[in-house]
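Q: What structure does this chain adopt?
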Amino acid sequence: MSEKKDTSNIDNETNLTDVDAAEMDKISDKEISDVHDNGEDISNDEINTNLQKQVTDLKDQLMRSLADGENLRKRTLKEVEHAKKYSHITFVRDLVSSVDNFQRALESVPDDNSQLSDPIKNLIIGLDIVEKEIITTFEKHNLKQIHPLGEKFDYNFHQAMFEVPTNDTEPGIVVEVSQKGYLLHDRLVRPAMVGISKKIEDREVNDKKMDKN
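A:
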């Protein structure tokens, strides 16, 4: 009888232990689940934050790339336009020197050519026509002559080679042009070599001061 009672007590204790263990397992599983859920929430927030930051960074990079691309496009167009206008300026500078010699040869022809033979007269007429065609071609390609006789001296387009004492014009006027200048579009190819007027009185005063010294 006693043995049965002890056996029953042992079984009851075993059952209680199993129940307690089951309850503890439930509690542990719940705590783990809660911890897992909380950890998952934190990870998702961090992921969302990181993704938003990446999107912002990528958007910023994209806008910068688009801006750089647009600036590059504008700069390239400007350089191409610049090349079209001025890439041949060295050739033009050499060419106008040859044209200067050609014009000097024409200027050496006497005004009265009645004594010349007909072939020479026809040659001169042909050279005059060629000169006009050259000037027309220059203007067609935006190459303009600077022939500032009678104009106010401008250091941007003229180079003063000497002074001409005179009272016929006000000081600083171009009274002689020893060499024409040329302008390609808005860029100076070669300045005009000029002589500018200077009052005679001013020169005389300077000479007197030098004599006193």
